[in-house]
Every structure is written in C-alpha cells, then in structure tokens.
Amino acid sequence: MGEQLGELKHRWRDGMEAFGFEPEELVARLATLVPPPLLHLV
Fold this sequence. Notes:
This protein is an alpha+beta fold and 42 residues long. It contains 1 helix and 2 strands, in the order ββα.
C-alpha cells in the first residue's frame, strides 16, 4: 500500500498543493475524529 495522497482544491499560501500520509498515520488521524462510545454529543 504506500503513501495515501490527497489533493487540495486550491493551492495554499505556502505553495502546498497536496498532502500525503502513510496508511497507519491516516487511520490514526481519522480515529481521533470518532467520539468514544456512550458519549453524549448534545
């Protein structure tokens, strides 16, 4: 599997057009967005 690349719609001020993550790093970043079970969100 290698590096996962994502393209940005617009170039950032610093010139960045895309970003890349290793599969483990991508899963770790996405996992932080999922709330823990039984947590009330309201």
